[in-house]
Each structure stands twice: as C-alpha cells, then as structure tokens.
Design a protein that fits this description.
By secondary structure, this protein is mainly alpha-helical. It has one domain. It has five helices and four strands, in the order ββαββαααα. It has a two-stranded antiparallel ribbon with strand order 1-2.
Length: about 130
C-alpha cells in the first residue's frame, strides 16, 4: 500500500481518495439570490488548500506511481468544473482562459493553412576548369 508524506504525516491512497471526495462533495455558496444559487467552483488551488498541501506537492504527487492517477483524475474534475462554470456564465471568458491556461495547460494555438504551393527550382551549374 502506497503512502505519501504531507506536513510530517503519512497519507494512504484510501485517505487521499476520501479527502478528495470530501472536497468535491463540499458545497460552498458563492452567490445566492431569489432566482439561483451559485456554488464555488472546484479548482486545483482549492483542492491543495483542502488537502493541506502546496500546489508543488500536488504536482509532485501527480508524478508518483501510486498517487498519480488519483491526483490526475481530481485535477480533471477541477478542469471540468471550470468549463461548466464558464458555460453558465459564472466566469467571464478572460477568467476562464486564465484558469485553463495557468492551471490546466491550455494554450492559444493558431494554425496557418495555405493552399498555394511554392515551387523551388535548383539549378546545377557546372564549372569547367582549364
């Protein structure tokens, strides 16, 4: 059974899974009106705070053979929550892009497609020596 150290204490895979599930089950009200309730989104930073570890420790755990898959799945759930909050307008497009780029590796990509074909002609010249 794999164990990791955090803040001087060891944590098992089962304990980590339980703590991650408690984070995702926690419902913190971000905003409430007569018409709707918006719950705080789940983020990698929030996950690290809930686990009592740094973002660096979370990244290190993701590289671990025993804990990596657990942490990767939790980070995917955070990513999905950001996307869902973006779709319902909780986040502005700029906040969504910032979080996805800085926490989940998204990048702006421009693809240039060209229909024209350029022809390169190589001419061989022979030099004659006398």
């Amino acid at each position: 059974m794999g164990k990791m150290m955090t803040n001087g204490k060891s944590i098992t895979k089962e304990e980590l899974i339980s703590k991650i599930e408690s984070y995702f089950n926690e419902r913190v009200v971000l905003k409430e009106t007569k018409e709707y309730v918006i719950f705080a989104p789940k983020t990698k930073v929030g996950l690290a705070v809930h686990l009592g570890i740094s973002m660096q420790t979370l990244s290190d755990w993701e590289k671990d053979k025993d804990f990596g898959e657990i942490v990767s799945k939790a980070k995917q759930r955070c990513e999905m929550d950001i996307l869902n909050h973006s779709l319902i307008g909780t986040y502005t497009p700029s906040v969504s892009m910032f979080l996805l780029k800085n926490q989940h590796g998204y990048v702006d990509k421009q693809e240039v497609v060209s229909d024209s074909v350029q022809k390169i002609e190589i001419i061989r010249s022979e030099v004659k020596c006398n």
